[in-house]
Structure formats: structure tokens, C-alpha cells
Amino acid sequence: MKLLRVIPESMLKGKKVFVRVDFNVPLENGKVKDDTRIRKALVTIEYLIGKGAKITLASHLGRPKGEKKPEFSLEPVAQRLAELIGRKVEFVGDCIGEEVKKKVDTLNDGDILLLENLRFYKGEEQNDDEFAKKLAEPFEVYVNDAFGTAHRAHASTYGMVKYFNVKGAGFLLEKEVHVLSEILESPEHPFIVILGGAKVKDKIGIIENLLNKADAFIIGGGMAYTFLKAQGKEIGKSLFDEKHFEKVRQFLKEGKDKFVLPLDHVVVSDFSNLSGLKEVDEIPEGFMGVDIGAKTIDFFKERLRTAKTIFWNGPMGVFEKKELSRGTVEIAEAVKRATESGAKSVIGGGDTVSAIHVAGLSDNDFTHVSTGGGATLEFLAGIPLPGVEALK
Ligand code: AMP
């Protein structure tokens, strides 16, 4: 993968540089609610300012599905970025066309321009070549720093890249690929993978790819019940993925004692009545497992104590509800402690990042908190990411 850091200064100074960033941030009343993703892009932006580039940033936000919907405008992001970086950030209400071209041509060295939402055009997600060409037209250099969308072959992450001779990965993308490659290629053992959340489907690839590399898979959350059923346990009304049941049985057969499954559960008969929560070893008929139980927490913690490499994706229960967040919070704390004892810990995006914040922990408590959810899982599943491949 070509890196931004090795592009000579002469190829950046005074050049019109397009930077694909991930500014897909939550908005509330027209303001940025959580600016984590904007902060993470600052390293690359500040580097380009230092090199005297004319910087244009582009991102998607939400799912406007190819329509110009004002509630998905990136304008509030321009304001927040300006505050964070302490400089003027220009904004243009489109991402292709004459107006954009004119605006880019007026930029001075070190100036910053933010384009409007790329997904206001269907061509972005469809990777339409006509759109990709228009997107590339005003620029001389391409930089991708959006790891979270690197698993998608979209116009801004894939299609437009072929129009550039000078291209590179920004610092955030570089770090993500570096940390995840280390886990794949040379993890220190014991290497423990913690998987949770609702969907088995998303985690099949990573289990398959790491089955011979990881020492243990700790499985919690809703996906654990398909594994428990495959072991002949009663799971009541808990989540069950029939479509991937056979695959799960196969994993248990091949992986044998590598799979570490819950021993007890917090169960409920009805989600709307959490006052009836019970903790059980065997799930009674009509009940569903919604968090791991106390014995399981101790059991999982014990396994994590000696880990040298930990990858975690997916909560241990329905952590969005406080009453059902104990398992997730305790596992987050156990991963933090393992990190303090010298383990390398990588938290894989999305819900797991929200979960560590629910636990009152911060990114600094772990070795690396990935900005990608799907991208992280696909990378560790050994699937080449189009956004990364395009930079080779
Ligand atoms: P995923 O996108 O597959 O990582 O799933 C994340 C979601 O799984 C979260 O919204 C959790 O509330 C949910 N989840 C975790 N444990 C369970 C469970 N035991 N039953 C139902 N949903 C769960």
C-alpha cells in the first residue's frame, strides 16, 4: 500500500489534494454530537497543511440513498472541524461540478475545503465510473484516510483512484492496516478473540480465518446461543441463526476446545418487562438470554488474564439497556486490565466502541480502537479491502 508519508513534499506543495475521510458522525439539531471521527482525521489534515497542500476533504454521512437531503448535509462538520483545527474551513454545497472546480481553484496553500455528502449521488455507492471521473477531475493527488469504508468499492474509495498517479494512505488508514496486519501475521500468544453481538453471519469469516491462528474464541452476546444449541443445550427464545447452524457445528468440531462459551445467563421472558430478570444455568422455555451471567464473567475473565493478544468485536449482551450491560462492562474492564499487564488489545469498531464508552473507559485504555466495524472484520477475515487494494 502506498503511503502518504512517503510522497515527496514537492508532489504535495501547492497541489490540489483530494482526501477521502470518514466524517460519518452523528448529528443532533444541526450540530455534531460526537466528533471522534473528525478528531481522528486531524493528523493527516495537519500534515498536509504543513506540506503546503491545497486540501479538499470528502466524506459520506448517513444513508441519503442518492438524494440531496438537507438533514444529511456535511455543513455542520465544516464548522466543527474549523473549531478543532483552529482554521477556516470552506464548505461547498456539492461534491462534483463547476462550482466545486472553481472553489478548488481558489484555494491557497494550506487551505481546507469540505465537499458536500458524497452519497447525495447514487454514483458514489454504485461506483459509477462517470461519477468517479467527475469526482477526480479537479485534483492532482489522492489520499484515502477512511478505514471505516475501505471494505466498500465506492467511487470515492475505489473508482476514482485509477485517475491518479500520485496517491497514498493517510495516517489513520496506515495505522489501522498496520495494527490489524500484525494481529493476522504475528500475534503474540495466547491470542484470544472475543466475539459477541447479534449476528453470527458477520463473524464467520473471521472465525474461519483465525481458527488455526487464535488460541481461543470467547463467544458471548446473542450469537452464543447458536453455538450453545449446536452443543445440544436448550436456548429457549434466545437468538438462533438457523442459516449458519451447520457452519457453527463445523466450527465446534474443528476448533474443539478453542471455543469458550457462556456457562450461565441473564434471561428475560419479555423485553418490555426487565423487572423479571433471572440468572440461570439452563434457559427455561419461553425465556431468552440477554446477557452473560456471573459465573460466565468469572470464567471469561480467567481466560483473559494470561492473554498476550486480544481482539474484541461485539457486546456480551443487550448493553444498550443498563440492566443488561454488566457482562459487557466487566469484559471491557478485564480487557483493560490485560492491556495494563502487557497484552496488545484491539477493539473492533461500531457497537464495541460504544460499549467501552458505556463502561466508562476510553480509547487510551486499549492498544488500538479501530474506526472500522465491517472493514475490521473483513480485514481479519483475510478479505482484501478495495480501498486498500486501490492504493497498491
Ligand atoms: P452486532 O451488530 O452483530 O455486533 O450486534 C450488536 C447488537 O447485538 C447490539 O445492539 C446488542 O444489543 C445485541 N445483542 C447482544 N447480545 C444480545 C442477546 N443476547 N440477544 C439479543 N441481542 C443481543
Describe this structure in words.
By secondary structure, this protein is α/β, with parallel strands linked by helices. The chain folds into 2 domains: 4-172, Rossmann fold, CATH 3.40.50.1260; 179-380, Rossmann fold (3-Layer(aba) Sandwich), CATH 3.40.50. Helix content is 36%, strand content 16%. It is built from 15 helices and 17 strands. Strands 5-6-4-1-7-8 form a 6-stranded parallel beta sheet, sandwiched between helices. 49% of the residues are buried. It binds adenosine monophosphate. Adenosine monophosphate is lined by residues 197-199, 202, 221-222, 239, 289-290, 314-315, 317-318, 320, 351.
| Spans where pLDDT lies below 50 across 5 or more residues | none
CATH architectural category of the largest domain = 3-Layer(aba) Sandwich
* Computed Rg: 23 Å
Question: What composes the largest sheet?
Answer: 6 strands, parallel
- Determine the fraction of residues in helical runs and give it as a percent range: 25-40%
Strand content: 15-25%
Quaternary class? single chain
